[in-house]
Each structure stands twice: as structure tokens, then as C-alpha cells.
């Protein structure tokens, strides 16, 4: 069975965020870190070269493959902020209130935090944290 490529690195998350060139993206990264740490009660960990994760979630697929991923995470991509919040069942109300965003399989894409409703985002992150623990 293939091993997961994305693993905790032990790299300094603050230094990683401080090195982001784009000032809005850098500020949004620090804001998301604070939000995710407050909700999770877990310290930020750099997974692979660019994913900032909180906690650990062990998964197993129907095919029997398994591994560990961050329970919740985000990444500061060039085009958008990517929030890894796993499942969206029951998130409809918060997504409707969120503002400008896109969704993918387990991912929420936001251009910048100024485009979204902070309370709706916090609810989404909290629900994702709670659900990933079950």
C-alpha cells in the first residue's frame, strides 16, 4: 500500500507564514491560524510544504487504504485560500451566509477573508473540527 506523501514536517509555521510575499495572503494566513488554533485547541503544524494543519484524523477508505491527515487545515495558494474541512453535510446555512466562495471535494476556496462572513466561517470550521473527531 502506498504511503501518504503529506506528513507533518516540524517546520516553523510562523516563519512559513511570515515568508508569504503577498501582504493580504500573509495576514489572512495568520488570521486563519489563530481561528483554527482557538477552535481546535491544537497548535499549528506544517504538513508537507504548504498545508497548515491542526490535530490528526485517521481515515480508512472502502478499499482499505488508510492514513493520517490533519483534522482541519488550510493552505495559502496563489489564487485562493484553501480550507480543508472534509465534509459539507449540514453546512448549507453557513455556506449560504459565507459570501464569495467555491467548494470542491472536502475543500472550501476563498479568495480573501475580507470577502466572507467571519461568523459563518467560524461556524464551518467548528463543525468540521467536531465532525472530524467522530
Automatic annotation (TrEMBL):
Start and end residues of each YdhG-like domain: 25-128
Top-rank lineage group of the source organism: Bacteria
Protein name: DUF1801 domain-containing protein
Organism placement in taxonomy: Bacteria, Pseudomonadati, Pseudomonadota, Alphaproteobacteria, Sphingomonadales
Amino acid at each position: 500500500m502506498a504511503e501518504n506523501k503529506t506528513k507533518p514536517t516540524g517546520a516553523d509555521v510562523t516563519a512559513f507564514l511570515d515568508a508569504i510575499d503577498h501582504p493580504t495572503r500573509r495576514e489572512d494566513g495568520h488570521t486563519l491560524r489563530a481561528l483554527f488554533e482557538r477552535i481546535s485547541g491544537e497548535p499549528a503544524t506544517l504538513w508537507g510544504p504548504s498545508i497548515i494543519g491542526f490535530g490528526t484524523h485517521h481515515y480508512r477508505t472502502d478499499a482499505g487504504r488508510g492514513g493520517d491527515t490533519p483534522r482541519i487545515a488550510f493552505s495559502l495558494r496563489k489564487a485562493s485560500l484553501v480550507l480543508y474541512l472534509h465534509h459539507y453535510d449540514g453546512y448549507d446555512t453557513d455556506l449560504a451566509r459565507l459570501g464569495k466562495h467555491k467548494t470542491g471535494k472536502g475543500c472550501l476556496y476563498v479568495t480573501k477573508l475580507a470577502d466572507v462572513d467571519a461568523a459563518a466561517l467560524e461556524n464551518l470550521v467548528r463543525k468540521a473540527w467536531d465532525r472530524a473527531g467522530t
